[in-house]
Amino acid sequence: MKAKQYLEDILRRVLEARGLPWPDKAVIEPPRERKFGDYSANLAMLLSGAAKMKPRDLAEALATDLRAQDMDFERVEVAGPGFLNVTFAPSFWHGILADVQAAGATYGASNVGHGQKVQVEYVSANPTGPLHIGHGRGAALGDSLARLLKKTGHNVECEYYVNDAGRQMRILGDSVWLRLRQLAGQDVPDLEDFYKGDYIKDIAARVHRENPGILSLPEAEAIDICFNVAVDEILAGIKKDLADFRVGHDVWFSEKSLVEAGRIDETFADLLARDLAFEQDGALWFRSTNYGDDKDRVLRKSSGELTYFASDIAYHHDKFKRGFDRVIDIWGADHHGYVARMQGAVEALGRKGALSVILVQLVSLLKDGEQVAMSTRAGKFETLADVVEYVGADAARFLFLSRKSDSQLEFDLELVRKKSMDNPVFYVQYAHARIHSMLRKAADVGIRPAAPGGAAYAELSGEDDLELCRQLERFPDVVAQAAELLAPHQVSHYLSELAAALHRYYSKHHVLSAGPQIASARLLLLSCVAATLAAGLDLLGVDAPERMDQAPDQAADATAEPAS
Fold it and tell me: Which of the listed residues 201, 407, 423, 486 has the most CB atoms within 10 Å of its CB?
């Protein structure tokens, strides 16, 4: 049972019995210092007028009522001008252990989503080259967010929008064609404005090998072959890189299919019928000024060429036609100026508020203290595959999810490879492995974790025991809030705090040498910590190893807070 909600429910009953309403500005939160209790409430200051009592007198009366309500309160005190400070009895916190054991891997799950159908679209990089580390941050965010939403009772579908139409794709076909001609010894124009990484050379060689007569074909036909082979090969590489990063998508949606299925024309007709689009100077315009934009936007140029905006509106029109209640797009921060325009278009489609856009800030990749340049067009990028191979998927995912997506991130390649407590992912994973090491050693000498109950609880009434229980109790709320705010980094922060509490506990308390009864009780507590760490790491797509290949650096302090 959630402590805060439990306390609020009882306070509501107490107020109702006194004929007092629940105040709009009620705050129930942990006090700044533990000595003031587990939670503090400001009700008496807000209701003194309605009760016709001084705030402190009302607080004293409410404290008396609370003490009479429930045995789960160890202390109810009044502080300052009328704060109610409540300390839960150890028996309440012990009940959390039974909750964790009963839930197992589902601990933290809820049904707050009530089956709402949500689409999460992420990565959606143009298939013009391998994924770079910036794409990796969006991939980790989208995948973790989908896990959070599923954990909280949403019906989630993950999608990758394949931008296989438009100017960049024409440049891709031209780039492969020119490189093929160059490999064949022909003179070609300057390649400065084309893709020219080694992967383009490899694709060109494959096209030439599989189509030996391609140089004698009409240029348009040859470029079309180059384009199709390039897209197929690059997409295959993207899918492999994402799979190696433990990221998947349920749907790969082709931009070309929008045109072929007539979805763009359908969207234009819908907007025109409601006077939300108009024709002027041979072009088709969207009335985006109706939705706060500084000017109306072109959908179809006078030349007949479609804009990116046209495809994007049609794409989102299609999303909602597929029955999604909510759509979440994850974009690079360079698209920030596009957000309001797209949300206005979704409002025009009759789905105001149904689109959420998360912007992902840049990643600075550091190696040996030097920043690594990333540029797809120039071929100087460090690919996501290279990074994952170098540091591992666990380290990369955890670091990507360690900060808010809209804050810039420095990715220190050497730090996340360290087998030390300075490495934030190692810090958390080692806490989990450390517990399982104790469980194995205990089993070797015939000691098992105690079953939840009075005998075990009697041995777990110290402040450090209860602090771990309090940390475990927070997890369901952390999961629910992270899902509501679309903020997986809250889970990584929680895991770092729980791991810190575990490492402190381990350094202060003997477990196996404390006697069989105490050891068994402490193993119950620590097994619940391990289960919660594993559940949290799973939400981040990070493994929870039961064994670590290498112990942390001996010089590292296991009780120190993790690096942020």
Answer: 423
Burial 338-373 (b: 16+ CB within 10 A, else e): bbebbbbbbbbbebeebbebbbbbbbebeeeeeebe
**In angstroms, rounded to a whole number, what is the distance separating the alpha carbons of residues 540 and 396?**
11
Q: Into how many domains does the chain fold?
A: 4
Whether 25 and 130 map to the same domain: the answer is no
Q: Please indicate, yes or no, if residue 311 is contained in any of the structural domains.
A: yes
- Burial state string for 59-97 with b = 16 or more CB within 10 A and e = fewer than 16: bbbbbebbeeeeebbeebebeeebbbbbbbebebbbbbb
| Separation of first and last alpha carbons in the chain | 31
- What is the SS3 assignment for 287? coil
Own/partner pairs for 99-103, CB < 8 Å, 24+ apart?
A: 99/1, 100/472, 100/528, 100/531, 100/532, 101/452, 101/524, 101/527, 101/528, 101/531
Dist. CA 520–CA 110, nearest whole Å:
30
For 14, residues 6+ apart whose C-beta sits below 8 A from its C-beta are: 62, 65, 66, 69
Answer whether residue 353 is part of any domain.
yes
**Assigned domain for 84 exists:** yes
Residues 257 and 355 in one domain: yes
Quickly count: other Cβ atoms within 10 Å of residue 289's Cβ.
Answer: 13
pLDDT one-digit tens code per residue, 275-318: 999 999 999 999 999 998 989 999 999 999 899 999 999 999 99
Inter-residue contact 103 to 475 (CB < 8 Å): no
| Spatial separation of the C-alpha atoms in residues 367 and 165, rounded to whole Å | 36
- What is each CA distance from 288 to 317, 341, 345, 359, in whole angstroms? 16, 7, 7, 21
In this prediction, residue 374 carries a pLDDT of 61
Which tokens sit at 281? 């100077």
**Are residues 344 and 473 located together in one domain of the fold?**
no
Quick one: pLDDT band at residue 368, thresholds 50, 70, 90? confident
The fraction of the chain above a pLDDT of 70, given in percent, is: 95
Same domain for 197 and 313, yes or no, is: no
CB 231 within 8 A of CB 172: yes
297-to-280, 293, 331, 338 alpha-carbon distances in Å? 11, 9, 20, 11
Domain that holds residue 320: 117-160+248-360
Contact of 133 with 365, CB cutoff 8 Å: yes
Both 205 and 79 in one domain: the answer is no
Residues 296 and 432 in one domain: no
Same domain, 70 and 7: yes
CA atoms within 13 A on the CB side of 310: 24
- Residues 523 and 439 placed together within one structural domain of the fold: yes
